[in-house]
Amino acid sequence: MKLNLALLPGDGVGPEVLSQAVKCLQAVEETFNHQFIYREAPIGAYAIDKYGTSLPEKTLDLCKTSDAILFGAIGDPKYDNNPEAKTRPEEGLLELRKSLGLFANIRPVKAFSSLSEKSPLKKEIIENVDFIIYRELTGGIYFGEKKTNEDGTIASDLCEYSEKEISRVAHLAFKAAKNRDGKLTLVDKANVLESSRLWRKVVSKIAESYPEVKLDYLFVDNAAMQLILNPRQFDVILTENMFGDILSDEASVIGGSIGLLASASIGEENALFEPIHGSYPQAKGMDIANPVASILSAAMLLEHHSLFEEAMAVREAVDKALKKGVVTTDLNEKSQYGTNQVGDFIADNI
Amino acid sequence: MKLNLALLPGDGVGPEVLSQAVKCLQAVEETFNHQFIYREAPIGAYAIDKYGTSLPEKTLDLCKTSDAILFGAIGDPKYDNNPEAKTRPEEGLLELRKSLGLFANIRPVKAFSSLSEKSPLKKEIIENVDFIIYRELTGGIYFGEKKTNEDGTIASDLCEYSEKEISRVAHLAFKAAKNRDGKLTLVDKANVLESSRLWRKVVSKIAESYPEVKLDYLFVDNAAMQLILNPRQFDVILTENMFGDILSDEASVIGGSIGLLASASIGEENALFEPIHGSYPQAKGMDIANPVASILSAAMLLEHHSLFEEAMAVREAVDKALKKGVVTTDLNEKSQYGTNQVGDFIADNI
Ligand SMILES: CC(C)[C@H](C(=O)O)[C@@H](O)C(=O)O
Ligand SMILES: CC(C)[C@H](C(=O)O)[C@@H](O)C(=O)O
């Protein structure tokens, strides 16, 4: 198979972890006789510094003409505490999601048994945890109108949802639940928010077309508790953009390291794959960042193009690295392996 | 001292846990020679069923003329999945907060060492955890304009904050931090939300008047992770209404039971005290709900009126019950004690 891949390294440790994913994709090309074409483009703080905008037009064009996008990380602390900043690295990622219509962010959460000591949760809590979060990604308070009054004393953000925005991601989540354990949990705040009540209305209607799936509801505050008290109860979680942002990062603690978690952002015509960890600026260029999340993002990319055997080879190589202790220091303080060596080991085992 | 107390039992297990708190307050009256006058009023689903509104006028009037309010719980599942419901029990609580100007919700989070096996988190994670959450309670997306378009296909909620709303709760949080370990963490989503950027601007300005306090910032998604990965890092957390709702319920897992956590909601002229657990309708009338959160809410009430010795007596009686195993089944499956017996034991030990 021939695939055109856009590479967006971004900021912080993005470039170094992305390189490891590319190594693994190259190993897949060789072993399975595919041809992947890699084209790189700037985004985020890196793009602001160089081109004055966090999402240059040519980056967006490249993404539009690619079969899939592999993304590194975004964000730079120098923009975080500057309320006067005219542009922010994160805007590039948000614009990219919106322009490409990447409406569903999919984050699998699984406890790797070889790493259960790393989790802050007790072993009996995380054993056999295996669920997926479907987060709506192009609506809600992220993209609603933002306002500040003239003298800068009042600011607001609008959280808006339409039936259409809700139903397209809901259908994906129901399909996933149907192929898994048949349980879907809608997380909202319907006792307070009008938009949440629309979510409940639309999702409960859609449920009628999926009789195999059992739908239940959880308020977001309760969900934040249940994720830690009893994560095994979940199969597929469906939620809106902001709640999904919070809950999926929270859920990342289950596995013991955020450095292991990959995500896919899917639209009608495009798909982007990225580690869920951020740009981790303190580690930039130090060869210590965990490349596994980025490599597993590449595995999700392969699956998205129905290259299941290839994805499995990547996953098995990752498992081998974890079992053999070829891991970065976030997983084992005494480890001697750096980002590059872990990437090499995994690529060599594909 | 003479105090006029409004009692709002509300729904589910609210009435039964509130009764235990009243028992303890009566014990305090006797032991310390005070006079508390208790006046009860309806709220929530109970009030809807009886009077057609979740906050009857006479309830609000009673609260306004009281020195403090002791609250049970609110909510009934029969309203949750009914998008057509004209009124909801929760509205009563939200209206009460707004009408009384209870702008700061204060939730202490502490790990009781006698209960560390109950927590889903590992012992070494929760040891010596001791922080307070200051949640803004009368602004943000809870109270912003709510809209649904004519054909019910689009719904929205506005998240709005003013400098004034931010600064009054921020001052309380800074003062608390000054009297504690001198560390304040502002949780927001300033990389996405305009309202969060206003929070950062206002709070960082206020910080200049509290040179003893070290201010730092955390994005809400990261905060949801850090609360579980390393809760000891926190001293005082300050955040807006919705993030506070989610994070404080999440933080409740640290102690092992949400049945232990109390909260205070403070305004210029009024204050309300309530357990953070909900109405727990499945347990209603079964004499199994944990009364400790409600009793500790009464202790916070006493502290609010500077009755520190009295509050300490209540806290010590609670500690004794926990240490002696006089607890409800949420803390010990094999326990024989019900809500009433635990309440009696604690009251007797004051
Ligand atoms: C970087 C930030 C804008 C982004 C988000 O909030 O969506 C990130 O936290 C994520 O979850 O991908
Ligand atoms: C009952 C509900 C409206 C309320 C809230 O969201 O504020 C509750 O969850 C709380 O935290 O007190």
Low-confidence stretches of chain A: none
Overall pLDDT of chain A, averaged? 95
Count the beta strands of chain A: 12
CATH arch. level architecture of the largest domain in chain A = 3-Layer(aba) Sandwich
Name the largest protein-protein interface in this structure.
A-B, 65 and 65 residues
Helix and strand element order of chain A:
EHEHHEHHEHEEEHEHEHEHEEHHH
Please count the helical segments of chain A.
13
- Please state the oligomeric state of the protein chains shown: homodimer
By secondary-structure content and strand pairing, the structural class of chain A works out as alpha/beta
Radius of gyration of chain A: 20 Å
Note the main sheet of chain A: 10 strands, mixed
Report the β-strand fraction of chain A as a percent range: 15-25%
Record the SSE blueprint.
The structure is a homodimer of 350-residue chains.
Chain A: E1 2-10, H1 14-32, E2 35-40, H2 45-51, H3 57-64, E3 68-73, H4 77-80, H5 89-100, E4 104-110, H6 123-126, E5 130-136, E6 146-148, E7 154-162, H7 163-179, E8 183-188, H8 194-207, E9 214-219, H9 220-229, E10 236-239, H10 241-251, E11 262-266, E12 271-275, H11 292-304, H12 308-324, H13 339-348
Parallel strand pairs in A: 1-2, 1-3, 3-12, 5-10, 8-9, 8-10
Antiparallel strand pairs in A: 4-5, 4-11, 6-7, 11-12
Helix pairs in contact in A: 1-11, 1-13, 7-8, 9-10, 11-12, 12-13
One 3-isopropylmalic acid sits between chains A (74-75, 90, 93, 245) and B (191-192, 221).
